[in-house]
Amino acid sequence: MTISGIKWGALALLVTATLGVTGTQPLTAHAAGYTTVKSQSMKKTSYHRKGTSGALYNQRHTQKVTNLKTYPYTTWYATKKATLKHGNSKGIYYYVANKAGSVKGWVWHGYLKKGKSPFGLKYAKGAVAMDAKTGKVVWSKNANTARAIASTSKLMTLYLTLKKVNSSSGSWNDVVSTSSKGLRAMGNNASVGGFKFKSGHKYTVKELYYAAYLDSSNNAAIALGRWVAGSNAKFIKQMNAQAKAWKLGHASFVSASGLENSDLKAYGYSYGSANANKVSPKDLALIARHLITDYPRVLTDGKIGSKTVDGQLCYNYNNLLKGRKYYQASLNVDGLKTGYTPLAGYCFVGTGQKSGKHRVITVVLHDENEFTETRSLMNHAYTYQSMAD
Q1: According to CATH, what is the number of the domain 126-387?
Q2: Could you give the count of Cα atoms lying within 13 Å of 194 in the half-sphere of its Cβ?
Q3: Catalytic residue among 140, 151, 270, 376
């Protein structure tokens, strides 16, 4: 764009030179490069971004490295200080790098604030870290905002299944009806199931428990719900009644599996007017707390990496377990449940108990790096002395 034949870029340079920008302001033009007036080493000092403005460049400012806004919770370590000049303007810049040294460059000092960055999660839209012993939330992000939670919904289904198994009204060896055409069709569609209900096999509660828990089988979860309550609709009413009994103010269920009604409709298992289960991070953590407190076997089962059920491999996608990509030995992660739908994004409810500490429960919802952020959140939660035994 031009104004009377003067290009915007040239006009910006003219204004900058006319105003004589000093070291109190950043230099704004980068095309022609900057010259170094003076440079010196400095004691390694931690900084974090002051706001969403600013970027890292090479020293001559001919190439941008990254924008600061993409690193909201990064601590930058400054080791050099320089006065850079562009035209008649001068500014003070720091050479900084992140802890790993993988991102580094020069940034105007005014975009930084001294000190380490406060803890935060970049990707999760909602998150909680809870002391499992006390129920105290030790860190949160949008803790009371209800969101779609995908297959982490199965924690409530597992709870009600175990409740019946541990009562006089049911047992692990009870045979569950799996003849529903909808559930069989769901198992044959990898996008919404994958665990097949074979016509020649009688499935027990225990088999479907492992299929729903480890493999996150949707048809297994729905079948268990029907076994618990007599029908899909009655089971979902039980889910909501249990949430109410626990005084969860931000939890509503329309699905035993976590699939949305937009997917369930084709199989005859849609329920209610809402499209999805919606639960807040805090309420989901409380469901997990009830589950592991009342039925601690879920922690032993949660460590199983894979299990064969009726000749089908049920694989546990918790990648914080031993031998998996994001495993950290000190965290002793032994659960709990993954989840994903396009609507909910990647969700994960994790739990573990570090030596000498209380057990921690974490929830991250609609995340892009659910295991990395869960690991960071667990480590941060353990900095709270209130969680020490």
Answers
A1: 3.40.710.10
A2: 14
A3: 151
